[in-house]
């Protein structure tokens, strides 16, 4: 029997590769604001004019705030987030999601109740938000609605914005259908599928009119 894979079949990374790819993803999110902080400090080291000094300090303040928000979000979305069986407050998840995603172009409409939920479901929600954000590259609104209630509640996110689109191969990675091998660019939706499976759910992404709908059910 041949072990050759069919063309286009997704290749699952092993545990070490998955960890490495997720680390690469986190570093990608942090490198821009951290680099801006370094640039601001270099300006200050050059004994700048007062107006340049104020510009540098403002750049450092904004970039440090962005880096902190992204770190907190990544810690919850990709990290251990407490012990096995831990629960997470959806109110905390909302705060971290807004800090990471709302940037002047993208806004969040959060229609979920505040309650404690199993950590993997909260991690799934945050990763679904990242997938949804990629469908509106020019900005727009992400509307989060509950499906069901209580600890078994799942989620529907509606992304609306100019030029909303289905990113290439993302649907396949979410569903487990044929798609590319998970790499540093694709690892986040692949990880979203793993989280959904751990929760006994399936994630789907579809175009509905001018909106992109991502659902976990």
Automatic annotation (TrEMBL):
The residues forming a coiled coil are none
For the Histidine phosphotransferase ChpT C-terminal domain, which residue ranges apply? Answer: 91-210
Give GO MF terms, alphabetically: transferase activity
Q: Which UniProt keywords apply?
A: Transferase
Pfam families in the cross-refs:
HPTransfase
- NCBIfam families linked to this entry: HisPtaseChptBrucRhz (NF046018)
Give the protein name, as stated in the record.
Answer: Histidine phosphotransferase
């Amino acid at each position: 029997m041949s072990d050759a894979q069919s063309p286009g079949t997704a290749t699952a990374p092993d545990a070490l590769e998955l960890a490495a790819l997720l680390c690469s993803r986190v570093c990608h999110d942090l490198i821009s604001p951290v680099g801006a902080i370094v640039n601001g400090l270099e300006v200050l080291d050059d004994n700048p004019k007062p107006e340049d000094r104020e510009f540098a300090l403002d750049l450092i303040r904004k970039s440090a705030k962005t880096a902190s928000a992204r770190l907190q979000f990544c810690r919850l979305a990709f990290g251990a987030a407490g012990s096995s069986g831990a629960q997470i407050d959806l109110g905390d998840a909302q705060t971290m999601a807004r800090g990471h995603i709302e940037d002047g172009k993208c806004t969040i409409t959060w229609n979920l109740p505040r309650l404690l939920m199993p950590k993997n479901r909260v991690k799934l929600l945050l990763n679904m938000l990242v997938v949804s954000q990629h469908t509106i590259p020019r900005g727009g609104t992400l509307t989060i609605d509950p499906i069901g209630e209580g600890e078994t509640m799942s989620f529907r996110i509606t992304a609306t914005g100019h030029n909303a689109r289905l990113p290439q191969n993302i649907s396949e990675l979410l569903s487990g259908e044929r798609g590319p091998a998970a790499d540093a660019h694709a690892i986040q939706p692949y990880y979203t599928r793993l989280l959904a499976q751990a929760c006994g759910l399936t994630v789907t992404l579809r175009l509905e009119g001018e909106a992109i709908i991502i659902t976990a059910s």
